[in-house]
Amino acid sequence: MLFLLWFKVKQPESIDQKKLMEIWTKEAEAALSAVKGGKIKGLYKVSGKREVVAILDVSSHEELDEILETLPITRELGHSVNVDVFPIHPYDNFYELMKKLTK
């Protein structure tokens, strides 16, 4: 199951810029490891914003929840991280569906 995740990070007033970058570095290390492991299919930083877009391939909704709850940035920043989650599927699958529905 593919999901597009859009992470929006707000810096809490209780931490300084250096601490935020330390937390984000831990998150980046975990994310890049997941890319190498194949769990993350795409990972992009939104230029000029504290936002990251990821495409994950998970086996269930529960696995997605587990991943989101165990991310370093989620554990350390909690409510300061907003994640929009969108289920997605390959466009060629959609194309095949359109061909089937138009017959």
TrEMBL record:
Q: Where are the transmembrane segments?
A: none
Q: Which domain of life is it from?
A: Archaea
Q: Which InterPro entries match?
A: Dimeric_a/b-barrel (IPR011008), MLI_dom (IPR026029)
Q: Name one Pfam family in it.
A: MIase
Q: Where is the Muconolactone isomerase domain?
A: 1-91
Q: Which N-terminal residues, if any, form the signal peptide? A: none
Protein name (record): Conserved MIase like protein
Origin species, per record, is Sulfolobus acidocaldarius (strain ATCC 33909 / DSM 639 / JCM 8929 / NBRC 15157 / NCIMB 11770)
